[in-house]
Design goal:
The chain has about 210 residues and is an all-alpha fold. It has 10 helices and no strands.
């Protein structure tokens, strides 16, 4: 499965699988995964939480619905993104969507958790890939719209997270495409830009939380 050249979307499966395992683990540990991995304004100095927050949920059965819905849409979208980007770039994109989405939630004064930011990061990336093909573009926009409506129907709590994730996914994919086949020095440019944006937003979130 992990052999060179393998096209199995192991990272896509891994994101969903890890989320399910941690939620189930929380049932038997009093919600410890959520306590240690979600990010809130008061815990924003623990920077790793901005990247781990997407894979944890509170251990309320209401959130099992959210896991199932987000998991299904990730498994419908993320494998194509992983195949097109390759595992290395896919991992960078997922981390960027996680970091930006979580930072957006903390900047809004709320806790960040759940797959919404990463899911919309995949949507944003997929939209860039199919933008030149009107039927596929329309289909992608409809899927994004449906998921936005689902989010709003459940209260719209994670809107900052999904908007942040969408922008991060689309932006990262655009940068990867723009700098493809450049000299090695310029090939590093998209990674530097992505890192600068993610770090900058996390710093802003930390400062905002300290005020």
């Amino acid at each position: 499965m992990l052999r060179p050249g393998s096209e199995a979307p192991v990272l896509s499966w891994g994101i969903v699988g890890l989320t399910v395992v941690l939620w189930l683990g929380g049932l038997f540990t009093g919600g410890l995964p959520f306590l240690f991995l979600a990010v809130t304004p008061s815990l924003s100095l623990q920077v790793w939480r901005f990247f781990t927050a997407p894979v944890v949920y509170p251990n309320d059965f209401f959130y099992l619905i959210a896991i199932l819905l987000s998991g299904v849409f990730i498994l419908l979208t993320a494998p194509a993104v992983e195949k097109n980007l390759g595992r290395g770039r896919f991992l960078v994109l997922a981390l960027a969507a996680a970091g930006v989405g979580s930072a957006a939630m903390v900047l809004s004064g709320n806790a960040a958790f759940g797959l919404s930011g990463v899911l919309f990061g995949m949507f944003g990336s997929y939209l860039i890939f199919v933008w030149a093909y009107p039927p596929a573009r329309a289909q992608a926009l409809i899927i994004i719209g449906i998921n936005l409506l689902i989010n709003i129907a459940f209260g719209g709590f994670t809107l900052p997270q999904i908007i942040g994730g969408l922008i991060a996914g689309a932006g990262a994919t655009y940068l990867f495409q723009r700098y493809d086949d450049r000299a090695s020095s310029k090939a590093r440019t998209p990674y530097l830009i992505i890192a600068a944006v993610v770090v900058g937003l996390i710093v802003l979130a930390i400062v905002r939380s300290a005020l």
